[in-house]
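In keeping with the milestone schedule agreed at the kick-off meeting, the structural modelling team has produced records for the first pair of proteins. Each record is given below as a sequence line and a structure-token line. The laboratory manager (R.T.) confirmed that both were archived under the project's standard naming scheme.
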Amino acid sequence: MMINKFIHLVAIASLALGAQAGDKEVHDFDKEVKPLLETFCIRCHGERKQKGEVRLDILDPDMVKGMDAEKWHAALDVINTSDMPPEDVKQPSKEERQIIVDWMTSELKRAKEIKRG
């Protein structure tokens, strides 16, 4: 039941964002995405502080083999709706936000396709 709900949510997110990533990685996590997460997210959702009991610094970026795809999906939701980062802190540029959203969407879609098979 939980997997079906997850697959449904990923499908909706992929359609809503117009994901065209297919099976290839859109952005390199270590080189492009992780530095952005460290700049805009980890100070409030890392080792020292876990606002909302959310910690992003320990999430496994491997959404196929790892166990954190649902947490990444939740993060995607709040980033995509601009609920995070909050308005009173430094915001990513449109391009930076798009890198994060594209990577999360691509990896969630890839995980969905692999797990479906």
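The second protein of the pair:
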Amino acid sequence: MTRIALVVLAALALAVPAATAAPARETASPTIAGVAAKSPQFSTLLSLVKKAGLADELAARGPLTLFAPTNAAFAKVPKATLAALAKSPAKLKRVLLYHVVAGKVTAAKVVQLRTAKTLAGPTVRITVTGSTVRINSARVTKVNVMASNGVVHVLDSVLLPPS
């Protein structure tokens, strides 16, 4: 796993303290961590980052793209699957890193791609049908949430890497 991916996920877990540590400039975009921390819809994602043991990684710079599943997306995952992930930090890390792509991949770039390599290793499939964009089978519900170190696209489902 790359250090950058671990750092992004660690930053998500530590978003509130990091966001309050230094005064924010009015014109500065929040980091990916700040974007996630500002929205209660990502509380499950933040909690899992901590469970995965990613919270203590050192900080590093992006740019990165996070395909961020919401709490509602995690609610769709079978309880047995979540329980199995909770018992295996390595598997949980892999799932979380499967949501991160190196580079700032805006919506305009995403729709030009057929696949994208994740920081977990495997690629995700990208399909565009009319105005609907899917990453594997997850629908992108919000795009281009800009951050100072990358971009966040919101998903309606959790991505599970191939075994």
